[in-house]
Amino acid sequence: MLDLLLTGARLAGSGEVRDLGVRDGVLVSPEPEAREVIALGGALVTPPLVEPHIHLDAVLTEGQPRPNLSGSLFEGIAIWGERVKSLTIEDVKARVRQVLRWQLANGVQHVRSHVDVCDPHLRALRALVQLREEIGDQIGLQLVAFPQQGVLSFPGGQELMRRAVALGADVIGGIPHFELTREMGVDSVKFAFALAAEHGLRVDIHCDETDDDHSRFVEVMAAETLRLGLEGRVTASHTTAMHSYNNAYAYRVINNVARARMHMVTNPLDNSVLQGRFDSYPVRRGHTRIKELMAAGVNVCIGHDSVMDPWYPLGYGDPLQAAFVLAHYGHMSGAEELKRLLEMITVNPARALGLPDYGLETGGPASLVVYDAPGEVDAVRLIPRRRLVLRRGRVVARTEPARTTVIWDGREEPVDFLPVHGSPASGG
Ligand SMILES: [Zn+2]
Question: Edge-to-edge, what's the strand order for the sheet holding 26-28?
């Protein structure tokens, strides 16, 4: 007897429609006898969504203590500097709990959060470490020690990073392009890698998040990864300066990133509004070179970055929104490219985070997401609600999708926004 039988699941990737059995939290072959049966009717099913880059400590602070009127990165940093002074452990926890619920409702079951450690009291990190304990296995949480004001340019920055590791940070961060000089930026990358190697931790650095084509710290990351044998354990986030590099230099650095088996995270929501702010027309997009990185075999992931904070006032923690924006800003509207967008919020970040037991294999954990849409292209196009989110065989989120009708020629008819009722868009 199964605990649960899901009928008519359309699997992402193959597009195959089949039944899925669940017993003791594990995916098993379907059997006729089950305690509960849920008919999916050809709905798209993927493994859990994975959020590889968010700043949970800053979520839901938009407008506090004042709104960002220009919408720029720099006004955002100034406002955050004011807001940090009033941080308390309970304030951070209350906001993060709220957004983690939103993420779970969206199907996100693994989150990597950068946490600002440029605070002598490390209040945000203490709050997140406590919360990671309190939420248990409801959602996976990795914490990055992130020095928002720099490691070498902030008083006591190195010591704060070491204290963050002692407190329980899982990943070492950095922000080399924000250090006072090029040399300090290089040293900050070497410091982060040495600290990670010493403690057996992974690395995830905010790297070259600027339109300055002279910001070239990704090359230092690749060199340190190779020197210390950290291949597969290092992520470079944002890397927007790559957009502005000359093609010969970009070619060289992309090959070195591939050689070092680094993971890349692009953050289309924030970077589409924050980059290009110093340009007169034409205004650059300021995204990293996604297609070229992928063509070189690099694992590229999509991050959400901000949810209603001083840098980005919108969002509700749904990776599909970020994928939708990247379809446009990354010129990823080709049929095969649209399907890859879904991999960039599921299997790709699962690799970057080093998640074990990830996927929809028989014998693996029954953790999955059911969409109110039949295919991958429809998921990107419609950003539909998640009908069902399963974690280790238990339903942890459920949405009753809205049903729409129109009155046409005097008759009420259903509208589902699909080209042919119930079937996926081409390529889906
Ligand atoms: Zn970020």
Answer: 26-28, 17-23, 2-11, 34-46, 368-371, 386-391, 394-398
